[in-house]
Amino acid sequence: MGVELGAAVATAREIGEQVLAPEAAAVDEERRWPEKGMAALRSRLGGLVMPAECGGMGHGLLAVAQVGEATGRACASTSICFGMHLVGSAVIAAKASRRQEERYLKPIAAGEHLTTLALSEPGTGGEFWLPQTRMERVGEGMLRLTGAKSFVTNAGHADSYVLSTLAAGPGKPPGQFSCTVVDATAPGLEWGPSWQGFGMRGNASRGLELRGAEIADWCLLGEEGDEIWYVFNVVAPYFLMAMAGTYLGVAAAALEEACSHLLRHREARVGRSAAAQPVVQHRLGTMWARVERTRRLIYHAAAEAEIGAPQALLGLASAKAEVAEAAEATVNDALTLVGGIGYGEHSPLHRMLRDARAAHVMSPVTDLLRVWTGRALLDEPLLES
Description:
alpha+beta
């Protein structure tokens, strides 16, 4: 590996503290894409999951989770933006052709190319694995894409987008889907207005209209009909770990904010401080245990998935479901301990609570992840309606 995992995580922490954290409040308040933070992450860690033979660091799911925690502590919006770059990178790399290695993998590894996912669609809700975007072959060596994508993170800022489409091959049965990568400069891409969210305000989420966008057929990822393979072998594991890491970072930051507040006020107050009260100590101890057991689940799930353990899906699905609940509950507890100061509009806890709530609604949603876990335990088809 080009860079040892501990060094990569240390780099993420450094960037988080020096670049992301100072910008986090403004990114949220101004609802702007975190250009400065993303430039720092892309240049130093952009090749985190790229193969070593392409100049990348050669890391996998555990690195995505740990780096996500480091960046999520500082700014959840930036962390998700970078996480989607890592997911898109992993998808492109999974079955990359020689031409795709030269065009995408090596520039990503060098920190010169930003990619992202464009899978969700307006008509499919949380079932992002059922695209309706059409792909057809036109002319010699060309593909035409027609359809719409929604909630594209890094929209208008990435250099390329990983899309899912209906399979276009002649004779392909209905219900088969493919993946492709599309350059930002491809003709026929039309961006919708910026989405104004309750939280995660800096992730530049927008809709994308594909009005007969034409791309070379070598941009097809893998073979026709490979999309479901990509979803369960690459997209879901990397996406779940990117999300889980980010929201673990939010939970850890909220716990740290509560501790710091109590310690500051213990030193400033004459007499019995809140930190000396058993009920406060009990709540803080409960918060620590919640964050720590969630961290161990996430890291264990990542490690199990990397070695292909039989029940890896149970851990991956449960990790995002658990961290969604842990982040929301921990921020709420921190608000209770900090009191009115924490409830102020410009408190970091105010931003953390809004960001944490998004963990439940970002697909796959918490309820669906619980269902997947139950189906896996019962040996039932995951995608059966």
